[in-house]
Specification:
Largest sheet: none
Number of strands: 0
Helix content: over 70%
Strand content: under 5%
Number of helices: 9
Order of helices and strands: HHHHHHHHH
Radius of gyration: 17 Å
Amino acid sequence: MKKNDWIFSGIVGTLLIIMVLSNIYLLTLFLGLKILYIFIYVAGMAVILLTMTHYSVHQMGNHEVIKSNWIKNHLIFWMMTDIHTLIMIARYVFPKERQGGYFPELLYVIHLLIIIPVYFSYRSHFYKKYEVGISFCLHALIYTILSYNFIQFIIQTMQ
């Protein structure tokens, strides 16, 4: 990886951690029933994800998706997978009653199963044609799953 890749990874990692931690604020918005602020929050997260995805696809200097760079081609996805893994481990480190039953574990397994089509996405001409849109949808889906599991973890630790 080049120096720009490391800088991009650091910035994206910091933004993802801040985005995940900002779900505490989202939780307070839900508890306060501030619907307009919830929509603004969701729109802001979507804009940040879209910007990161667009930059990742077009500006990283390696727009041509090739098999040897499968981690670099989906760096945001892999970073979300790492953060999700840490959240799931934290759910079991804290001995309190786990919230949501086995649903967070099911979502984590779904997240892990999505790795298979992501790994082979470089073969699809459809993916190459609509890379930004598909990657954004993937990032939005994974971020939603990640946010849900983080909120469940926060509720678990608050009890």
